[in-house]
Write a structure and sequence with these properties.
- The chain has helices spanning 79-88, 96-108, 114-146, 165-178, 193-200, 212-224, 260-273, 300-310; strands at residues 29-30, 34-38, 49-51, 55-60, 63-68, 184-187, 205-209, 230-233, 246-252, 274-282, 314-318, 322-327.
- With 329 residues, it is α/β, with parallel strands linked by helices.
- It folds into two domains: 28-108, no CATH class; 165-327, Vaccinia Virus protein VP39 (Rossmann fold, 3-Layer(aba) Sandwich), CATH 3.40.50.
- The strands form two sheets. Strands 8-7-6-9-10-12-11 form a seven-stranded mixed sheet, sandwiched between helices. A five-stranded mixed sheet has the order 1-2-5-4-3, with helices on one face.
- A hairpin with a 2-residue loop joins strand 4 and strand 5 (63-68).
- Helix 1 crosses helix 2 (96-108) and helix 3 packs across helix 4.
- This is Methyltransferase family protein.
- It comes from Nocardioides aurantiacus.
C-alpha cells in the first residue's frame, strides 16, 4: 500500500454500524466501508497491502479489506489497543469511523454467528477486567501500606484509560469506590462493562449511550451473561428521565469526546439526574487523541470550573486521570 492514508469517504454519510447484523459469506463482516475476515493462512504478500503482526490491509474499490489472525482468546476489548498500535497510530488507517468498523469486523468475523462472537468478546473482556481490577486493588493496598501519601495522591497518574483493559481497569476500580449507595446511571457507557460489573453485584443500573446499536447489543448480551440491567439510548446532555432519578450518575471518559458547550450541558444534566453523587473521570492529555475520538483535552482546572458551576460541594483529584465528584444530596 502506498503511503497515502485510507480513511473515511469525504462527506459521505454511512449507515450506522449494526453489531448484530447478518454475517457475510464465510463469516466475513462487510459494510459500506470495510470488509473484514479471519484467516488461518496468509495470502501471498503484495505491494498494495500493509502487513503487521496480526493484520493484512489493502484498499479494494471503495472498501478497506482487512484480513486478521487474532485468535479467539484475544477477542476482547484489548483489540482497541492492538488496532491502534499496528494500524492507526502508524497512520496506515485513520478516522474514528473506520476504527469502529474495523474493530466490529474483527470481533464479528470468524466461526459462529454474530451474537456468539460478541458473547466471546464480552466474556473475555469481563474476565480480563476482573483480573486487572483485582491487581489494581492489590497494588493500591500495597502502596497504602508502604506510603504515608493521601489516597488521592497514591497511584495517581495521567494515563488516558483507553487502549487496553489494563489501562482502564484502575479507572473502574476507583469509580467503584466512589459510588454512593443505591442505584447507578452510567452516561456514555459504550459497551457497558462497568454497568455489567455493578449490576452483577446486585445494583440497580441503567446504562445509557447515544449509539442505538451499542445499546441493543448490551441489552441482548446482558441476560445471556446472567446480568439484569436497563439500557437507554440518549444523548448524555438530554436524558429522558426525571430529576434525581439515580443515586449516582457516572460520566467516565466521556467529556473529552464532546465540544466544551456540549460537555457543560452533560455536567448540568448529570447533576439534575443525581440524588446523591456525580462522578466524572477524564484522561489528562497534552493533545487530544483522535484515534479514540477525543476532540478536546480536559484539565484539572476544567474539572474545578465544572465543580464550581454546580454550586454544590465537590472534590477534584487525580488518579489515572482527573476526577470530579459532586455531592448532590
Amino acid at each position: 500500500m502506498s503511503a497515502a492514508h485510507v480513511g473515511e469517504p469525504g462527506g459521505a454519510t454511512l449507515p450506522p454500524i449494526d453489531p448484530l447484523g447478518p454475517a457475510g459469506p464465510g463469516g466475513w463482516y462487510v459494510d459500506d466501508l470495510v470488509r473484514v475476515r479471519a484467516v488461518g493462512t496468509l495470502r501471498q504478500w503484495s505491494r498494495d497491502s500493509v502487513r503487521t503482526e496480526h493484520f493484512d490491509v489493502r484498499h479494494v474499490g471503495v472498501r478497506v479489506h482487512v484480513d486478521h489472525w487474532v485468535p479467539p482468546s484475544r477477542i476482547d476489548d484489548d483489540l482497541a489497543g492492538l488496532l491502534a498500535d499496528e494500524l492507526f497510530t502508524p497512520g496506515w488507517l485513520r478516522g474514528t469511523e473506520l476504527f469502529e468498523r474495523v474493530f466490529t469486523g474483527v470481533v464479528r468475523s470468524g466461526a459462529g454467528d454474530p451474537l456468539e462472537r460478541w458473547l466471546l468478546f464480552y466474556r473475555n473482556s469481563l474476565v480480563g477486567i476482573a483480573r486487572e481490577v483485582a491487581g489494581a486493588a492489590s497494588g493500591a493496598a500495597s502502596t497504602s501500606a508502604s506510603s504515608s501519601g493521601s489516597a488521592s495522591e497514591s497511584g495517581s497518574g495521567s494515563g488516558s484509560g483507553h487502549g487496553t483493559i489494563a489501562g482502564y481497569a484502575p479507572v473502574y476500580d476507583h469509580a467503584e469506590g466512589l459510588l454512593a449507595d443505591g442505584s447507578v446511571l452510567e452516561l456514555g457507557s459504550c459497551f457497558g462493562f462497568l454497568s455489567l460489573r455493578l449490576a452483577g453485584r446486585g445494583r440497580r443500573v441503567t446504562a445509557s449511550d447515544v449509539s442505538a446499536g451499542t445499546m441493543r447489543l448490551l441489552a441482548t448480551t446482558a441476560p445471556l451473561l446472567g446480568v439484569r440491567l436497563e439500557t437507554r439510548v440518549a444523548d448524555a446532555a438530554r436524558v429522558p428521565a426525571p430529576d434525581r432519578s439515580a443515586d449516582t450518575v457516572l460520566a467516565l471518559h466521556l467529556l473529552e469526546h464532546l465540544d466544551p458547550a456540549h460537555g457543560d450541558r452533560v455536567v448540568a444534566e448529570a447533576v439534575r439526574l443525581a440524588r446523591r453523587r456525580v462522578v466524572v473521570a477524564v484522561p489528562l492529555e497534552d493533545v487530544a487523541d483522535e484515534t479514540w475520538g477525543h476532540v478536546r483535552t480536559v484539565t484539572l482546572d476544567d474539572l474545578r470550573a465544572w465543580g464550581r458551576s454546580t454550586g454544590l460541594p465537590y472534590d477534584v483529584h487525580e488518579h489515572h486521570g482527573g476526577w470530579l465528584v459532586v455531592e448532590t444530596g
